[in-house]
Amino acid sequence: MTNHPNRQQTQFFARTNSYGSDTSVGFDNTFSAIVFESRAARDAYVAENSEINLAVKPLTKAQALKLADRNGDTSYLPTVDGRYIAIK
After folding, report:
1. pLDDT for 38-78, tens place per residue?
2. pLDDT band at 3 (very low <50, low <70, confident <90, very high)
3. What global pTM score does this model have?
4. How much is the pLDDT for 21?
5. What ranges in 1-88 are assigned the alpha helix state H?
């Protein structure tokens, strides 16, 4: 949530790792952030995937930006379906 009363959060973020599994979060340098257009979609993705990939967890916008910056992409993040959305 934001502190400004007239501003609502419109993007929600989660962390994943292509090398994650049900017993490991994978390698530290292979984490990535993904963006969702609704909290419900993000929460459903996390609930569905966190048991099979320990790396999956919700992120704040600041955490997602830090992770995206580390990966060299600070303007856009991928969605689950492969589209890229500009970070607002």
Report:
1. 999 999 999 999 889 999 999 999 899 888 877 676 678 88
2. low
3. 0.78
4. 87
5. 39-49, 61-70
- Phi, psi for residue 69 in degrees, rounded to 5: -65, -40
The residues, ordered by sequence, that sit 6+ positions from 30 with a Cβ below 8 Å of its Cβ are 17, 18, 19
* Cα–Cα distances in angstroms (integers) from residue 35 to residues 6, 21, 25, 53, 84, in the given order: 22, 21, 19, 17, 8
| Opening angle at CA 32, ends 29 and 38, nearest 5 | 160
Distances in whole angstroms, Cα of residue 60 to Cα of each of 26, 64, 77: 20, 6, 14
Kindly give, in sequence order, each residue whose CB lies less than 8 Å from that of residue 48, ignoring residues fewer than 6 positions away.
none
CB count in 10 Å sphere of residue 73:
15
